[in-house]
Amino acid sequence: MARPAARPAKPSRPARGPDPLGTATRRAALRLLDAVLRRGEPLESALALATRALPGGPDRGLAHAIAAETLRRLPDLDALIDSATRQRLPDDAKARFVLRVALVQALALGTPPHAAIATVLPLVDGGPKRLVHGVFGTLMRGGATLSEVPSLLPAVAERWRAYWGEEAVAAAARAIAAPPPLDLTLRDPGTTADWVERLGGTSLAPGHVRLPAGAGAVSELPGYAEGAWWVQDLAASIPARLLATGAAPGARALDLCAAPGGKTLQLAAAGYAVTAVDVSESRAARLRDNRDRIGLAYDIALADVLDWSPGAPAQAVLVDAPCSATGIFRRHPDVLHRAGDATIAEMAELQTRILDRAADWVAPGGTLVYATCSLEPAEGEAQLTRFLAARGDFALAPPTQAELPQGVAPTSEGWVRTLPGTVEAVGGCDGFFVARLTRL
Ligand SMILES: C[S@@+](CC[C@H](N)C(=O)[O-])C[C@H]1O[C@@H](n2cnc3c(N)ncnc32)[C@H](O)[C@@H]1O
């Protein structure tokens, strides 16, 4: 029998030497972009693995900043790249990724152009180095700039234009450009004026303090160590505000989908005996950490709401449902790249299952609040319309103006919808849908 011919040895890839100074950070930024854009992972979840080779916090922070700013500016960066290449680079070409990272540094992050390109060129080793160098050089010599207000991704702009109109799309683009303020929720709303003064902030509601962007490290701010407040966007504070009204001390509240626990803390501070349920172990750990730091009491159940059930119905039930999270795009620009029609439909289906199950745990005369940090009506308005049509034993309990922050009003339907233009003149807020219902 003839022996099979020996296979020619594969040329082995030369081992990669150590990265030149600064390149390891850009390599990590590239890995983050790859995780978000090619694999659909959340930027924050990809961070630990992508940056594990970096020596410390500042390098990790820079890798994160490069990736986040690239995601904010992606349509404009790509338009520049396309304007300088004869043949369009495929969306997933390494050269395009590397050019995005070089350009965002030079045009948005203040890195000198020679450093921006020198630190990324080793990333295309064995690839089209000359092309990358050439495109970058052409754009720099031609005085390329990025517009002050970034362009929204076309698919997102089209979706939101259809739902919310042109002005909301323009406000969303402006919101991407401006770093959002820091919102704090106070453990004791009665101390609002004191904390506004101590922290040098402003307030749009009892128990709320707003500090300008860049207020410094959160853990260094007065009141952090003593647990006087926690970080929570103004819009995110609305769902629990609607349950705090008329809370009977010691009444039972279920906070389903609770971690990291901003709303759990509000409910506990309002006097409820809260059970906080979440399926994620790592996120539930933050429920514990926050409880320890703030010094409020609540029970934590690590469980899937679709399997779990409470021993008895509760006076208050909060469903802050998992969602596409497109309403938090200012702090998490990756959501806009990851949440397409399929994700939105998948999340809406999960929300339906959670909401329908949770509704049965509301005691007669009790209150149910349903909320999502999404700008997609399928996860808000349509979800509630469906629920109300199916459940004659629930009725909307519209919020009063006094229950809502300044600048936020209930809609004519009787729920709350915050949009990119909401309170824009004083720093804006996340996009949320919130509805309160009473069980008859
Ligand atoms: C929007 S976040 C909650 C934010 C939280 N309410 C707060 O204010 O800090 C949604 C949460 O739902 C949790 N989750 C998703 N599916 C779940 C399920 N089937 N059962 C329980 N929790 C779930 C996720 O782990 C996530 O922490």
UniProtKB/TrEMBL annotation:
The active site is at C373. Residues 1-24 are annotated as: Disordered. Residues 152-440 form the SAM-dependent MTase RsmB/NOP-type domain. The lineage of its organism: Bacteria, Pseudomonadati, Pseudomonadota, Alphaproteobacteria, Sphingomonadales. The keyword Signal does not apply. PROSITE patterns: SAM_MT_RSMB_NOP. PANTHER family: NOL1_NOP2_SUN FAMILY PROTEIN _ ANTITERMINATION NUSB DOMAIN-CONTAINING PROTEIN, NOP2 YEAST -RELATED NOL1/NOP2/FMU SUN DOMAIN-CONTAINING. The keyword Methyltransferase applies. It comes from the Bacteria. Belongs to the class I-like SAM-binding methyltransferase superfamily. RsmB/NOP family. It holds the Pfam family NusB. This is RsmB/NOP family class I SAM-dependent RNA methyltransferase. Residues 1-15 have a biased composition (Low complexity).
